[in-house]
Fold this protein.
Amino acid sequence: MTEQESTIQALGQRAKQASYALANLASNKKQALLRAIAAELRQASAAIIAANAQDLAAARQAGLDAAMLDRLLLDEARLDGIIADIDKVIALGDPVGQELDSRLLDNGLRLSRRRVPLGVIGVIYEARPNVTVDIAVLALKTGNAVILRGGKETLASNKVLTSAIRQALVAQGLPADAVQLIDSPDRSLVSALLKLDKYVDMIVPRGGAQLQRLCAEQATIPVILGGIGICHLFVDEAADLKRAVDVIANAKVQRPTVCNALDTLLVHRAIAAEFIPVICRELAALGVTFYGCEQTRALSAASGITPLAADDESYATEWLSLTLGIRVVQDLDEAVAHIRRYSSGHSEAILTDNIHAAAEFMNQVDSAAVYVNASTRFTDGSEFGLGAEVAVSTQKLHARGPMGLEALTTYKWLGTGDYTRRK
Amino acid sequence: MTEQESTIQALGQRAKQASYALANLASNKKQALLRAIAAELRQASAAIIAANAQDLAAARQAGLDAAMLDRLLLDEARLDGIIADIDKVIALGDPVGQELDSRLLDNGLRLSRRRVPLGVIGVIYEARPNVTVDIAVLALKTGNAVILRGGKETLASNKVLTSAIRQALVAQGLPADAVQLIDSPDRSLVSALLKLDKYVDMIVPRGGAQLQRLCAEQATIPVILGGIGICHLFVDEAADLKRAVDVIANAKVQRPTVCNALDTLLVHRAIAAEFIPVICRELAALGVTFYGCEQTRALSAASGITPLAADDESYATEWLSLTLGIRVVQDLDEAVAHIRRYSSGHSEAILTDNIHAAAEFMNQVDSAAVYVNASTRFTDGSEFGLGAEVAVSTQKLHARGPMGLEALTTYKWLGTGDYTRRK
């Protein structure tokens, strides 16, 4: 075993041990813990902001761009926001402890399923210090221990944040090791974490495609892949084209850097000649640039815009920017076929006033979220009323789409007999 | 890409395509399909039994043991049983199409979750030809396509079985490729299948520890691990010792070769001197042999039996035979600690008349099934009233314990607006 492997093994063992102390806590105890964490973070705010200044200085020196620096930044206002979010989690219902499907079996056993914490959750994320608090709080609310691995750019901030959380745990008579930070940028620690199936019950990678791939390939622990959205919107021939423009603009422009932003617009050929010049002009005015199929490029000429030529690669790209692919399709079937081929299974939408087209699209498109006459931007835990979001899953097992508190739980079957034997 | 990889890729692509045709079938269409499969199997019974005779002859020549030969065997009676089981699956409710948690969101969207098939399921299993039919029928009942990889010893039988199923699909106007068999014993095909995440949504390995490990390590697709049961039963000081004997005998002896059979008996020290000689004598009379801790070995001497010395390795063994580990523990806490250390998370039981001990055991033991005053042998889809069993999961994501039809489904979020934008 390498030194890194034994470091991670010890950390996992401590996390598992801590998870036992959390698993059967009553909700009011967990609420008290969350309030204590908020208080500790408030008290440590000067130290947190100082540590963050250190991270920022190092990041500037390393030449990180403005967007990255902004993501790293923790000032007083942002920290207040993070602490205020803890109150929102406190207000949520606790899924743990519910008994589901209780019944008396023919064999004489009384059987039920009880919702219980997963146990130990490993979360790997990029340089956003708010995630450290978010995830710790969601994990503790559901009685889980958590192992955090944040981006190396926020290591100083994360150390102070987790230390405050650990102090709150201890003050509440709970094991500090319920929240542990991997406090070294050594990448081999991540590899070791991904193979720690003896102690870790779920890995959630919150990051780009490369991190997702790494986890899919290396992990021996169940992983929830997600957060990659190659999202489509299909403008049907029966769409209200005037109203369509605002929905498409919302999907593309409101926050182009996130996973539920629109990547490819599919346009029914029957309305393409009318619609494509309009949508190109409107979006171009908002700063959007385009990749288009041949027809799109011909039709958009009327608006004075010529998109770059779209190809297999551009259709398979999550833009995360003010770029949009546009393709003219023969009909709904071709739109569905395009989505099946290129989608990452995140969010797709149809705009149509035709009830048959709407139903067909919902039936045929198999993504985490499928919309009729709505922006793809709605795929989000808080928009969906889940109150919190651990991640957005694009796989089909366990949790799909925005993951709320329930996704941090599992169930165990409880059977009670009277010295009952199987026949 | 190797030849094996491209073979598997083509197979996966066909399965995915076929899955689209199944996903939105009404229940009565799927019932008709299952009836057609039963009819085709009946019609092909002579061919099936002839192919099985071929498998058996080859197995005998290869020197496989009697237990293995028995598992391989498909005679008329067994085939009748397999066909009769299809009727049971027909009688089950169809979980696909249900809409869950429908509600109107604050943002104006009407949102629900619709239960849908997973899509394509890959199942890797050992030399039991009945599994071929079982799994195909369960997958089709829930609108999934399936890729089957059975043991090489049953290849001839499996070819005829799947060919009959594919004929039924075609007769019902459905794509034959909804059920495909990997019809070569080449192991590199399995490795290729495990990395086919583009087309396969879930892998279920039904086999021993080695297969489970292979899948955990190589798969880039979500895998449901399971079927390995290192099961414990704790005899508390407050147990009714007379009645305990029969439950323990049931757990150990009724069917020792299956995953829910008892592996280690934990005995509270307060009743060890009285109980250990009794249980050893009773079980020995049923053919059980023992590994015991030091105390067990000393105490069992009174019954004229001396267990072999138990150690770390024996406690970590799934016996799958008439062998039993016995250990004396200080109290319930030590029993729980033993289980946490050695259990595979399958099934554990306590025997006690003390309500506090019972509650504590159910709270502290985190396995798929936890029993009070019942045999571990109950962990089974049909005993649990699920009607069918795809596998028994020992992991915590997606499905835990016996997996019924619902475990072959996921959900998608459906949102309907009125050209609704996110604020």
